[in-house]
């Protein structure tokens, strides 16, 4: 267990249903000024979309990367199977856990893209719950908090009004390029 008591205690409580988070720049500034250089280098690598094969040597961040990439690979495999394409090449990340595989299948079977994304984000939130176990005031707690912030931000960007607006713009673009 590390000693980032003040840093962790200074962070607002965050849930999946939080309406907002602290600004990312404020979080990063707080962390940069309170964690060791080695922990800072690891923390700033924590991204919702991890680069393929990222290995940091930190079990929490590497676990996140493996779980997130396993989920993406399973979704790609399901899409390929539906199209009748080969699926073996999508096994390169392996199955992280049964819950990740189940979430991918559930998301794939959702009719609404918004609901499918909610399933995926909840599964990733649960993955962070697992990875955070036993970490209270260390860099792993800050990593999971930072990733949760990114999930909340992404989740809250999605709404029906903006979705309908974006659909209308895309639809008009398609119709105007392909007049019948």
Task: Give a description of the structure.
- The chain is built from 8 helices and no strands.
- The chain is mainly α and 180 residues long.
- The longest helix has 24 residues.
- It is globular and about 60 Å long.
Query: What is the mean pLDDT?
Result: 88
Q: What separation lies between the terminal Cα atoms?
A: 65 Å
**Number of individual domains:** 1
Which class do the helix and strand fractions yield? mainly alpha
Estimate what percentage of residues fall within beta strands: under 5%
SSE ordering: HHHHHHHH
Q: What does the overall shape look like?
A: globular
Low-confidence stretches: none
Number of helices: 8
Fraction of helical residues? 55-70%
Question: What's the SSE blueprint?
Answer:
Elements: H1 5-9, H2 24-32, H3 37-43, H4 59-82, H5 98-109, H6 113-132, H7 139-157, H8 160-177
Helix pairs in contact: 3-7, 4-5, 4-6, 5-6, 6-7
